[in-house]
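Much of our argument rests on the idea that a fold can be written as discrete symbols. The amino acid sequence and the backbone structure tokens for this protein are reproduced below:

___
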Amino acid sequence: MAMLRPILLGILLPAVVAGLALLVAWRPWRRGGGAGGGGAGHAEAAAGAWGGALGFGCGYVAGQLAGVGLPAFPPRESMDWFPWIAFAAALLGLLEASGRGPAWLRWGLRAALSVGAIRLVLAPEIAYRAWGVWESSAWVAGLAVAGLLVWSGLEAAARRAPAAALAPAWVVAGTAVALVLAQSGNAKLGQAAGSLTSAVGAAMVLSWLAPAASFSRGGVPVLAALFPALLVVGCTNNYGEAPTASFLLAAAALPAPLAGILLLRSTPGRPSWKHALLNAAVTLVPAGIGVGLALRAAGAE
């Protein structure tokens, strides 16, 4: 039981923290379903966007502290950097939720966060392999661009569909990330991804009470910064010999709901169960294949 306690806390605590933040931000008890009320349109639907930034960021940090323990300071390992990355992403999410600043500034800050996060979590690997400036810069730049593509897909989906239509799919994707990381022999990384997924799970429950709520901008930066960085660390420290394809498919599952959204032309507002089901089903394809390949590799050893 003592061994299960950190795992349970690492899953339950993020859900509680995220749920409280989203409850205050989305206010589902308001007439019309919260987050701006019924028929409010996209502008009002995004009124509670700050809840996603605060809920996902603080929920993740609470989960890592409870499940993994306090990070070293100053950070020495990749794992020690994730709470700081979560806080930085939450701050960016709060800034974006305010709606201030031109698009070029938003993308400039997103690029800076993506590059910074990848460079920090890759630092031990760069030192171990004794990569030079050019080689390490090429890896960091390439992985940061890939992360920004995932970010772009997440944000495009969040702009086109309400939280209730997206959350089930992102729970599927986050679960796939956690399972692939666990199968790569990185239990702590898998638990960290599980903590973040648990926070999204709380949002999934509350989103059906606040059908106008949106993940756009506010919650997306935290997911877009943490999930790719976790996958990068797991792939470069692949003790379980999970295939590289599993990591790529888990990453592809994150923006996969965009395909379902474009197919049904979902728009912000009250979602139907068809939107949520189709988005989750589309996401399950790369997620399921990625997890299946990792499990098969583990069984073959």
